[in-house]
Design goal:
This protein has 198 residues and is of the alpha+beta class. The protein has 2 domains: 102 residues, Peroxidase, domain 1; 57 residues, no CATH class. The chain is 64% helix and 12% strand. A hairpin with a 2-residue loop joins β3 and β4. α1 runs antiparallel to α2 and α1 crosses α6. The radius of gyration is 21 Å and the shape is globular.
Length: 198
């Protein structure tokens, strides 16, 4: 929770600077792209975590990669995060920044994680159900993560709904492990659960 609060503070600061210079919308997509690198690319995480690369070399590499490709204010912002060693918060900062953009534009967006890409009809139906649930028009932004196995996870502002198959299987396994079964039957069931057998 503390990290989320810090991330919102950074996002608000970037938004205010961007708004003063008319660049708040332009900062959104490249900030989101940087955040996705941290989420999805282990090489990015290793690059910023390894002690073999000095802070100065790391900053210079980032500057060369971004200069001329992102708004100047965003470049300065990223360099400041590096200086304060807060680059790991980029995904949370990006989410908070997008929320600020959506709020100003009157957009309502829910971030939905699914195990596989939905067909257009399913995406429309999901948007309709979420709109009914939240009581306002909502556009789902779909992300794919096969690790959840099935179902979906929804994040809307500070609210989360985890309806993933993985979560249900974990809960089922926990219930089976702690179920009160007679003697040797309980021991056998626990061994089979831990081995992933049916």
């Amino acid at each position: 929770m503390k990290d989320l609060t810090i991330a919102r503070g950074y996002a608000s600061a970037l938004f205010e600077v961007g708004e003063r210079h008319g660049e708040e919308e332009a900062c959104g997509p490249p900030l989101r792209a940087l955040a996705e690198m941290f989420r999805a690319d282990p090489r990015t995480t290793r690059f910023f975590a390894t002690p073999r690369i000095s802070r100065e070399a790391r900053r210079e590499s980032v500057r060369r990669a971004l200069e001329g490709r992102v708004p100047e204010r965003l470049l300065h912002f990223v360099m400041m995060l590096l200086e304060k060693r807060r680059q790991s918060l980029l995904p949370e900062i990006s989410d908070a920044y997008q929320t600020l953009l959506d709020e100003r534009a009157g957009r309502h967006r829910a971030y939905v994680t699914m195990a596989r890409e939905p067909d257009p009809a399913t995406e429309v139906l999901l948007g309709e159900r979420l709109s009914e649930l939240l009581g306002q028009p909502v556009k789902p932004e779909i992300g794919i993560n096969p690790a959840i196995l099935g179902g979906f996870i929804v994040r809307y502002g500070d609210r989360w709904l985890d309806a993933s198959l993985r979560r249900h299987l974990v809960a089922l396994r926990r219930e089976m492990i702690h179920a009160r079964l007679p003697g040797s039957l309980a021991e056998s069931a626990q061994q089979r659960v831990w081995k992933g057998e049916r």
